[in-house]
Amino acid sequence: MGKLQRLPDRHRTSLAGGATLASSASPAAAITVRGLGKAYATSAGEPIQAVSQVSFDVAVGEFVSIVGPSGCGKTTVLRILAGLVDGYVGSVSIGGRVVHGPTPDIGVVFQDANLMPWRTVLANVTLPGQVLRLEPKACRQRARELLALVGLAGFEAKLPGELSGGMRQRAAIARALLHDPRILLMDEPFGALDAMTRDAMNVELARIASQAGKTVFLITHSIAESVFLSDRVLVMSSRPGRILAEIEIDLPRPRNLDVVADSRFANTVLHIRRLLEQTGGNPRVTLAH
């Protein structure tokens, strides 16, 4: 398939209102986080520190994953990046702009595909275009191209109930890419899938991210998934979540499931597992295991 057509510039939504320029952010960084901390209050009014002193960068076009124990604040970090959570300390910027709320420079995929059951696959994928008031014809054309990219060509007129779980997640990825965001945030997108489907979706995600040319930030509990997909893995401690280590993944691309036989893959998975075990977490390995 040919290169995806970008939406015409006149139909792209401005960042104004979602972000302001950040003087301290690196122009080469897609995501810059410095000293991030977030606390929540219990029903009794007691503060619980979710994350503390979290700092990292994600370069343009890089695929970065975060792994850590349950409850360590991974999803909190992602939701702050998406502009869905405020009241934090530290600084967070996207493309050099401080995040104040949701911005069209970001697409988000959650564990649940959240497709509207009464809308066709094509109508679900074009929904962000309606919300952002983009030109309908251009959106439909891009939606069809994205559905082909994620392997759903021919399913445009189907309803979500006629799709498998993996197919629904593919549609959710296409929807997140519809408005041509620079960054894709993914929160355990394949966590509800069976192991074989999850492995297949990881191969597909690696291909899609490469072909779409996006910066990807993935939250996962699976060590092997993070190593398979990523250029770099951030390892978080138990609550309050901190970055324990940044692991560079020394594996060639493109990758397929045969990479699990590579000693570098196994050694990296083992290294991250040992880091997580030191935090008292319960790390998982699912990819081809």
Description of the structure:
The chain has 289 residues and is an alpha/beta fold. It has a domain at 14-59 and 68-102 and 185-190 and 217-289: P-loop containing nucleotide triphosphate hydrolases (Rossmann fold). Helices cover 30% and strands 24% of the residues. The chain contains eight helices and eleven strands. The chain has helices at residues 74-81, 121-125, 127-131, 136-149, 165-177, 195-212, 223-229, 263-278; strands spanning 19-21, 29-41, 47-59, 63-67, 89-94, 97-99, 106-109, 183-187, 215-219, 232-236, 243-248. It has a six-stranded mixed β-sheet, sandwiched between helices. A five-stranded antiparallel β-sheet has the order 1-6-5-2-3, covered by helices on one side. β5 (89-94) and β6 (97-99) form a beta hairpin. α7 packs across α8 (263-278). It starts with 18 loop residues before the first strand and ends in an 11-residue tail after the last helix. The model is unreliable at 9-27 and 285-289 (pLDDT under 50).
